[in-house]
């Protein structure tokens, strides 16, 4: 009999508000930011009010990474936060677990074990002023502080826009058990649980940052998807993942685990976007800084050991794992509201907001740990990217794919 590992469940509440309709070429205010005590909100930068031109963009001189780093390495405006948080694990006092000791003496032991796990999973690491997970310390590039968590909620809204206000594309009907891999703030899992009140929805993540007030059929577990899964085989009807780029070194193994743990006829869906902006009108060419940016992220990602090109290989890896009826839905994520289509314009505005306020979290640990960059160099690189965002001649977008497939109905029972 397979022994299931019990994982603690901790969460913090979050608030939301109705989106604010922004004007053209502005990065909209962030309606999803939760109030934070004794902390500053990310600064919003004004964008150009000049409408984008239809003619091709002028030729731009090539910007190399070396030239850029040399230019800004001594800029006094780009210094690390002082004082910085200590580069050590620090407990989060806001996270706690209630234990009931009314049953017997064994309850006291369970309470002690639970409190120990609570402390271990919530003792976060601070680097360059950002907070990171402690469980499996160092294997993931993204922070888990309030600033980055707000970006995840913004990303969720943008993904819903990209999916025509849906949570997924796979033809899932009346599921009984759903797994959300890398659940982050848990917002997708919570909305999915509300959509399917008779199904159990399980969200897993390295950080216990999800809210405590959730639907009764939604649970969260601290787990690492890159380790051997401990769920019962053939037990899920739907396995969902989103933006796992830079998190999974072996996508063949990931889809193998998905295959083993899906019921025959169950569906898997993976949604990923690229990190290298491109354009259809030549405004983002080989010499553009955004091209330098994308090549740099991809290169440092290879050094990190977990590539950022997942969006290009999902279909191939899914089919290799044995899934059938695999469908790939290509997507475009405009950087800014330059597209004429109203739907794509809105998506572009939310994507620009996310990049403007959250880009630091995407590359700070990646560039400093894997690339050997300094805090100053990272901030200078970020500034150049954001400057390009405010140039209406740059009509770039991030490519992406939504890929889903089905486990064959006649698949034999999984072993183990």
List the helices and strands and how they pair.
Layout: H1 65-72, E1 89-91, H2 105-122, E2 123-127, E3 130-132, H3 146-162, E4 177-181, H4 187-195, E5 200-205, E6 218-222, E7 236-242, H5 251-261, E8 262-273, H6 289-304, H7 310-320, E9 324-334, H8 342-370, H9 375-389, E10 397-406
Parallel strand pairs: 4-5, 4-7, 5-6, 7-8
Antiparallel strand pairs: 1-2, 2-3, 8-10, 9-10
Describe the protein's architecture and organization.
With 416 residues, the chain is an alpha/beta fold. Helices cover 32% and strands 16% of the residues. The chain has helices at residues 65-72, 105-122, 146-162, 187-195, 251-261, 289-304, 310-320, 342-370, 375-389, and strands spanning 89-91, 123-127, 130-132, 177-181, 200-205, 218-222, 236-242, 262-273, 324-334, 397-406. The strands form two sheets. It has a seven-stranded mixed β-sheet, with helices on both faces. The longest helix has 29 residues, at 342-370. It is globular, with a radius of gyration of 22 Å. The model is unreliable at 1-65 and 71-117 (pLDDT under 50).
Could you list some keywords that capture this structure?
three-stranded antiparallel β-sheet, globular, 10 strands, 32% helix, single chain, alpha/beta, 416 residues
Brief overview, please?
This protein has 416 residues and is α/β, with parallel strands linked by helices.
Number of strands: 10
Strand percentage lies at: 15-25%
Oligomer: single chain
Rg over C-alpha atoms, rounded to the nearest angstrom: 22 Å
The poorly predicted ranges are 1-65, 71-117
Structural class: alpha/beta
Q: Give me the strand/helix succession.
A: HEHEEHEHEEEHEHHEHHE
User: How confident overall, as mean pLDDT?
Assistant: 77
Largest sheet: 7 strands, mixed
Spatial strand sequence of the major β-sheet:
6-5-4-7-8-10-9
State the helix count.
9
Distance between the termini: 9 Å
| Morphology call | globular
Helical fraction: 25-40%
């Amino acid at each position: 009999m397979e022994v299931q590992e019990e994982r603690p469940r901790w969460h913090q509440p979050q608030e939301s508000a109705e989106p604010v309709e922004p004007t053209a070429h502005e990065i909209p205010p962030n309606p999803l930011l939760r109030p934070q005590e004794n902390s500053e909100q990310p600064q919003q930068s004004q964008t150009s009010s000049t409408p984008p031109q239809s003619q091709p963009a002028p030729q731009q001189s090539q910007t190399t990474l070396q030239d850029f780093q040399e230019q800004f390495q001594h800029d006094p405006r780009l210094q690390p936060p002082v004082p910085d948080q200590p580069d050590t694990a620090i407990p989060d006092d806001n996270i706690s677990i209630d234990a009931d000791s009314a049953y017997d003496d064994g309850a006291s032991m369970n309470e002690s074990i639970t409190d120990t796990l609570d402390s271990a999973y919530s003792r976060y690491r601070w680097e360059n002023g950002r907070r990171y997970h402690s469980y499996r310390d160092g294997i993931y590039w993204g922070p888990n502080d309030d600033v980055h968590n707000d970006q995840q909620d913004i990303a969720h809204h943008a993904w819903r826009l990209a999916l025509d206000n849906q949570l997924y594309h796979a033809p899932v009907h009346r599921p009984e058990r759903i797994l959300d891999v890398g659940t982050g703030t848990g917002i997708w899992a919570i909305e999915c649980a509300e959509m399917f009140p008779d199904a159990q929805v399980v969200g897993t993540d390295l950080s216990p940052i999800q809210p405590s007030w959730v639907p009764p059929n939604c649970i969260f577990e601290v787990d690492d998807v890159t380790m051997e899964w401990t769920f019962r085989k053939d037990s899920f009807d739907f396995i969902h993942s989103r933006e796992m780029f830079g998190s999974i070194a072996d996508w063949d193994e990931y889809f193998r685990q998905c295959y083993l743990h899906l019921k025959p006829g169950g569906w898997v869906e993976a949604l990923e976007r690229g990190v290298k902006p491109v354009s259809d009108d030549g405004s983002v060419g080989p010499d553009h800084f955004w091209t330098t940016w994308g090549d740099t992220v991809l290169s440092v990602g290879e050094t990190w050991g977990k590539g950022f090109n997942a969006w290009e290989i999902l279909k191939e890896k899914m089919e290799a794992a044995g899934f059938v009826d695999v469908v790939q839905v290509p997507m475009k994520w405009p950087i800014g509201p330059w597209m004429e289509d109203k739907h794509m314009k809105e998506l572009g505005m939310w994507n620009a907001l996310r990049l403007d306020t959250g880009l630091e979290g995407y590359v700070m640990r990646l560039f400093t740990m894997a690339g050997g960059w300094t805090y100053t160099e990272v901030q200078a690189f970020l500034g150049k990217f954001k400057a390009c965002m405010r140039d209406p001649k740059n009509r770039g977008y991030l490519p992406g794919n939504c890929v889903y497939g089905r486990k064959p109905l006649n698949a034999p029972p999984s072993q183990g």
